[in-house]
Amino acid sequence: MKTKRNMVLLGFAVCFLGISVSTANAAGRADGDFPSRSVEVTVVFGAGSAADNIARKFSDLIAQELGRPFPVVNRTGGGQAIGFNHVRNQRPDGYNMIWTSNGLLTAYYQGNLDFRYDAFRHIARVSYEPVSIAVRADAPWRTMEELFNYIRNNPGTVRIGNSGVGTFTHLVAAAIENEANSSVIHVPFGAGMAFASLLGGVIEASIQLPSEVMAQYEAGQLRFLAISSGDRIASIPHIPTLKESNINLEMILWRGLAVPMGTPESVVRILENAARNVVASSEFHEFSEVMGIIPAFMPQEEFERFISEDDRLTGELMRTIGTSVR
User: Fold this and answer.
1) Which pLDDT band holds residue 125 (cuts at 50, 70, 90)?
2) Helix 2-32 crosses helix 265-280 at what angle (to 10 degrees)?
3) CA geometry: angle at 29 spanning 26 and 34, to 5°?
4) What is the residue range of 213's domain?
5) Is residue 267 packed enough to be buried (19+ CB in 10 Å), middle (13-18) or exposed (0-12)?
6) Residue 83 is assigned to a structural domain of this protein
7) How crowded is residue 94: how many other Cβ atoms within 10 Å of its Cβ?
8) How far is it, in rounded angstroms, from Cα 145 to Cα 141?
9) 231-240, pLDDT tens digit by residue?
10) What's the pTM value of the predicted model, to 2 decimals?
11) How many angstroms separate the CA atoms of 102 and 254, rounded?
């Protein structure tokens, strides 16, 4: 009986050991062979938006780099909360990634999110975009300096269109307003309404990504006065920056990749290196020139420091203009 009992116990031990080894091997494969299946990429804006277009191109290229599909899923609504909450609550194994931007910061200060940027591991910055300040082709202001001086001398008369309260385009308009020590009328509108509002005289100026109104600019229907980045951009190299227009502002819309906190370091490094290669590729550079974005890879640790500082500045600005609940 004793021998039989020992054999049973030995059987349990071998079984347990087998399970432990199997689990350990599975965990090792999860990291070492990552990715072994498709990686889902969440975009918090709708299909056809600038964020969506860039995410889909990037996902195609990183899929080629890592040999697995990176399907894009649009999870919109809740002031970006639906998409960010979904990814934050996924298993931290690298198979759920989110295309992120300054919007993660503004959504928190608006009260749409109950967690901050540090709920995620930020893999890499991929690109950035300035916004453009545009007026109708027949507008009286031919330079940004002229419009700025008009705003300064005529408080509450210039209507500036943006993508919605608390969005990056709204923040740029508010920063210009603050710099002028004056006031403007902020007019939020939905996607696709920028040009129609400007042409119809509903607003005097619009702040949008250059790519979103480039066709109208090339058709001679509107005039770019300035862009918000520190340097001019290749798609419209003759358009000056705000600083060149004697307005001491530099603001960019950055985009990058993030995964849930707790994702293994080995997985983060694989995704970071793949992102580095994609951003350096000629195909991504060609796409970026067409889209009016600037490829700007930033590695994980530097990117997280960058976001921390941007979060501080964003919070300060949103409190100043009264759009923060924090």
Assistant:
1) very high
2) 20
3) 135
4) 132-245
5) buried
6) yes
7) 23
8) 8
9) 998 888 999 9
10) 0.81
11) 6
